[in-house]
Design a protein that fits this description.
alpha/beta, single chain, 5-stranded parallel sheet, TIM Barrel, two-stranded antiparallel ribbon, 12 helices
Length: 329
């Protein structure tokens, strides 16, 4: 029944629509601190649903077929952002076993033992040796928090959410300073193997997966000047092309909200660097009217098969959201 409905709302040909799913991590087992985080059993379940309902296309092939008006009905592509090691260790074996492809967007500055700022906060608080954080010493928090308890998992969840939301859009210099100071307070042993190694990226590509650029340091592009934006994007592209010995034609915006995380200027920089397509995190569906440098992505959060599928149908039926969210060039 659902497959038939998807065939109607996601036609092929010149009126074709492409759904693009976005994931980040796939943990080997459920995380006690974040029980809703994607893990292996749930990801395999979702992959089997997707295979039974859709025609799964490599993203580069889907982009070409979109331009040519030859998309099959019920087209979908799978993407991952950031370059976590569990993409290679957990997600890729599941995809290979089921016979699906995906595109993995890599923030190249974190290869070989790097740790993104948000993960540094999460892992510092997860393994904290103190029962509360003293935040009153930081002007960023002086108007809202003096301290935050981080003894129980519930307290840790609340503290992480509060801190990430507060410092996400401060300058990178201030954010790094705050992140390091919080890590020092917690006294945790931080992981050194959370992100992929260059060898894993190469092996992933050899297995049939696609690799895309995702900047060097995963900054909010809207907060950088044009030269910094160009450097972040071009250096990540060149790094991956040198590693893989092939053109890297796909890009994903860090964070990815139009007008908030990236600007019209950034779209044109990416277009000028010769990318074939760039992915946002704006909800919606790709169609012939979509700007290839601002393609939307959407993944339902439901655990129930019917609800998951129904939300995909709803996203296909409400494609106007992308048109409202896109930056006017």
């Amino acid at each position: 029944m659902l497959k038939s409905v998807l065939g109607i709302v996601s036609p092929g040909g010149k009126n074709g629509k492409l759904t693009v799913l976005i994931f980040h991590r796939v943990l080997p087992a459920p995380d006690p601190l974040f029980p809703l985080e994607m893990h292996a059993l749930r990801f395999e379940q979702i992959c089997r649903w997707i295979k039974s309902w859709f025609t799964v296309l490599p993203l580069n092939d889907a982009v070409v077929r979109l331009k040519n008006g030859t998309l099959p009905e019920r087209s979908i592509s799978i993407t991952f952002d950031d370059g976590y090691a569990d993409n290679y260790e957990v997600a890729m074996p599941i995809l290979n076993r089921i016979g699906l492809s995906a595109t993995f967007f890599i923030a190249t500055g974190y290869l070989n033992g790097g740790l993104m700022w948000n993960d540094k906060i999460i892992e510092s608080i997860r393994g904290s040796k103190v029962p509360k954080l003293n935040l009153g010493i930081f002007t960023t928090f002086s108007d809202c928090y003096d301290s935050l308890p981080i003894d129980s998992n519930e307290e840790k969840q609340m503290a992480i959410e509060a801190i990430l939301g507060r410092i996400k859009y401060v300058s990178s210099t201030d954010r790094d300073m705050l992140t390091s100071a919080i890590a020092e307070q917690c006294g945790s042993n931080l992981p050194k193997n959370m992100m992929m190694t260059p060898r894993q990226v190469v092996e992933m590509r050899r297995s049939g997966m696609l690799i895309g650029a995702h900047t060097v340091s995963h900054p909010i592009l809207a907060g950088l000047d044009a030269l910094e934006v160009r450097r972040e994007i071009s250096e990540s592209k060149l790094c991956l092309e040198s590693l893989l010995q092939e053109k890297v034609g796909l890009f994903a915006y860090p964070n990815g909200k139009p007008n908030q995380d990236f600007l019209a200027r950034d779209v044109e920089i990416i277009r000028g660097l010769g990318f074939d397509a760039a992915l946002t995190t704006a909800w919606g569906v790709v169609d012939s009217k979509s700007d290839l440098m601002q393609l939307p992505r959407f993944t339902p959060w439901d655990r129930n098969r019917f609800r998951f599928g129904a939300r995909l149908v709803n996203n296909l039926l409400h494609n106007d959201r992308l048109k409202l969210a896109q930056i006017a060039n």
